[in-house]
Amino acid sequence: MQGLGDLNLRARLAPEVPTWVTEWVCAGVCVALAGLLRLAVDLLIPAPAPFVFLFPAVLLATLAAGWRSGVIALSLLLVGVWYMVLSPARLAPLDASESASLVLNGLSGLMVVAVAQGFRTAYGAAGAERAAKLEIRDLLLRELNHRVKNNFQMVASLLDMQRRRATDPGSQQALADALRRVHSMAQAHAYLYSPSDASDQIDLGAYLGDLCENLSDSLLLSGQVRLDCWLTPCMVSRDRAVAVGLVVNELVTNAAKHAFPSERNGTILVKLKQIEIGCELTIADDDEGLTPPGE
Predict the structure, then answer these.
(1) Of 62, 170, 241, 283, which residue is the least packed, with the fewest Cβ within 10 Å?
(2) In this predicted structure, what is the pLDDT of residue 86?
(3) DSSP 3-state assignment of 278?
């Protein structure tokens, strides 16, 4: 029934097609379907009940194009039954039982129209209420994201201020590392939780490209040490992308700080490629490796 409620041909075809045209055409199609089905049943069951397909046709016409279309279909079907079944090819006066049957089925058809139109009205009201709730949810989500963004900026400012005040090199380095992690998480939030994108899947390659660019700026990777990124599109869930981003942040930061002693030239590589079973991420550098003990 929900799919039939979505049909609503009048709203879908307006304003290109006038409402009255949609109502009449829909009623005519439903009447024609009922007539064809009646002819098909006549081949299998001679002289079936005269009103066998009246109610489904009226119901379909009302759901598709509104109560006027349902009333039109009902009227055409009643005239058709009178002409083709009760008094073939003459529209002659009916006897008492036939007249009563025609009137009672007409009243029942009007009840079907009323019930179907009530369903359409209730469905439309529910749809409007659902749309309003979604709009409110999006508004609250945008406000929440804005507040989270401001909180990240405030934490980053406090860490940076404390780093500038610190005199111990170890404390400065620890605060700088914390500041980079906060920047990474803020970037992940801004990139991954945009209210305009409701999809649960995002392109990990594009996200890591932005992350590597920010890491190059924050770590001052220029001159002797360079950060290269070879990234291909790879769709993953948002939560997984956040986790991968944090791992890349830590590994690239550690490589930049410890892999190239004595100002030696080098390259840090972040590589992402699509494979048959998912994505393959490689983070490598061209340092000389760990010095064996005793050397």
Answers:
(1) 170
(2) 67
(3) strand
| Amino acid residing at 257 | K
Dist. CA 30–CA 56, nearest whole Å: 9
pTM (2 d.p.): 0.51
d(Cα 54, Cα 84) in Å, to the nearest integer?
A: 14
Indicate the SS3 state at residue 228: strand
What's the farthest any 2 CA atoms get from each other in the chain? 117
Pinpoint the alpha helices (H) of the chain: 2-7, 9-13, 19-44, 54-65, 67-81, 96-165, 169-192, 204-219, 238-258
Q: Which amino acid, one-letter code, is at 208?
A: L
Provide the phi-psi class of 211: left if phi over 0, else alpha when psi is between -120 and 50, else beta. Answer: alpha
**Of 109, 27, 107, 118, whose CA–CA distance to 68 is shortest?**
27
pLDDT confidence of residue 1: 45
CA distances to 66, 84, 102, 252 from 79, rounded to whole Å, are: 21, 8, 9, 81
Report mean pLDDT in 10-residue bins for the chain, 295 residues.
58 78 89 85 70 86 89 89 70 77 88 90 86 85 81 86 85 81 73 62 85 75 76 86 85 81 78 87 77 49
pLDDT score, position 186: 77
Structure tokens at 33: 């379907």
From the number of C-beta atoms within 10 Å of its C-beta (0-12, 13-18, 19+), residue 190 rates as middle
Q: Which of 43, 117, 39, 42 is nearest to 73 (CA)?
A: 117
Residues contacting 256, CB < 8 A, separation 6+: 219, 221, 225, 227, 268
Strands 201-203 and 235-237, sheet pairing? antiparallel
d(CA 209, CA 111) in angstroms, rounded, equals 63
